[in-house]
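Bit of a strange request maybe. I'm writing a small parser for structure token strings and I need a real example to test against, not something I typed by hand. Could someone generate the tokens for this chain?
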Amino acid sequence: MADCRIDKSSLSNHASFVYKHLNLSLSVDFERHVLEGVATWTVDVAEHRVAELVLDTSSELEVRSVTVCGAPAPHTMRPAHAAFGVACAITLPEGLGEQGRALEVAVTYATSPKSSALQWLPPAQTAGKERPFMFSQCQAIHARSMLPCPDGPAAKFTYDATVRVPEWATALMSAVAVGSPVASVVGGVPLRTFTFEQTCPLSSYLLALAVGDVRGINVGSRTTVWAEPSVVEAAAWEFAEAERFVAKAEELTQTPYAWGRYDILCMPPSFPYGGMENPCLTFATPTLLAGDRSLANVICHEVAHSWTGNLVTNLTWEHFWLNEGWTRWLETSTLAHLEPAERCDAFFDFQVQQALTHLADDVATFGPTNPLTRLIPPLDGIDPDDSFSAVPYEKGLSLLCHLSAIVGGRPIFEQFAAHYIGTFKRRTLTSADFRECFLKWCEGREIDASSVDWDAWFKTPGMPPVTPVLDPSLGATCTVLADRWMAELAADDLSLDASAAEYKGWPSQLRIFFWETLLARALEGKGAPLALRALEKMDRLYELSASKNAEVRLRWQRICILSRAEFIIPQVLGFVTEQGRMKFVRPLYRALYGWEAQRELAVQTFLEHRSNYHPIAAKMLAQDLKVAEM
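Reply from user aminoacidic:
Good idea to test on real output. This should exercise your parser:
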């Protein structure tokens, strides 16, 4: 399991080739909702006498023609797989499949309006309401519906691209823009062509394209924040600390930032994730625009991916924790080191406390014996999207905290982290490769790491086999207040003398931890209803109905649903229909569905707003609500 190098999510034969470079030429058609273009792959044959090159595609993509080294080549579209799409097998001409041979394979193709990687938004679903918007989301295995490719993390390549768009639009990619856009007129239609170059190798899931009416504001020497004009100033202010995160991560990893630019695109509300770490262009949800930079930790997480994930990458999706667990560690370490020195350790431990609470919630949702809660989950025949949870993030972070204790503390483990990134940068690896690297590093420093039970960490479902010892001081006041409220909520006792000033005096992260703790207490009650009068009192005291903090809203609304508080229903419906971030919409829809009296309302709301959600989110919500996929 730990050393499995087979990519179970790809139909390509990428191991038979070394993928060097992609030249991509695209035309964006907003009227037909399609991309048309040519993907030209430069590869070296890695095995002896290879007869064909097989690329991942999907039933949502049309391959029109193929050339190999400039000559037409036959291709076969194999039967579709329910989870993994369609394999496009390209026959190599006689003599071109010899080991070491360099090939240029050009595929002319077009996507369809149903491409799972692409969302086409009409003007009404944008902030400006005047122009349409299109963006891609390729993680985990959706790049194959955007272009024919080796759609697995193991194949890393550089790329350059030209993108032709309407003259009113700006194109952005996970690459550095080269020069100014070139104007042209085709068939009487004014267009602009943008050119991009990515010189650092990346995997297909990090290919990204966004096209819309956006403008940028520079907030640092290597950072521009992009967004629709009506949002861009708020986004630029909210994300202005990005450079601090990049600089501190460089210091911690002892590895310079490799990607040139660190730009951020504030996405339309339907974007399904908090952020996506596309190199040179992080996509960020507008749910981060809290107005006080309190949710900027998501940007720090995406910054950290520039090293852990983008530069050092999991070989397959079964080893996804190597991306996300490490990124949670680097994010948490970066934020901790930006705190005053006397708060650094306590802040780190506080972040891990939150992580364990989040992990427990997701483990309970999946079930503690579900194999998908293993750190290395078995993904045979499973779409990686279906396994997505807090497990690779927070269980992975827990393992790294355990290893930190093994080596003698975080300062020493930070030395290993720098060694790890220096060893594997621009490469991919398995969990076994990581384990070997760690043990050899420990051996060279005469550190005894024999007590680590790797099988228990990698193979056992549920919560981590070892719970880290943490300093609870930073979150102690939150825990105490949560327990006091829980007693009142459970006993229908309105005698609690709680002050709004105490809660409002906390920074956002403490407020979120308070709600996380209260939600965990409510879930421990296995659905026992909390007192409606006490919930209403809490709402008035803390002005929760007026809160703009999405993290607070999520937890507060889940607590109310658990207690069958009907006054929360309009707020929940408003929240799940104004944005499409899966972290928020999935647990809220599931909670409503679990309330028998609201089940029909949950399904009806989803069906009415289905087209507003990204295809990935719509698929997952349909599964949650047991609605047939369209």
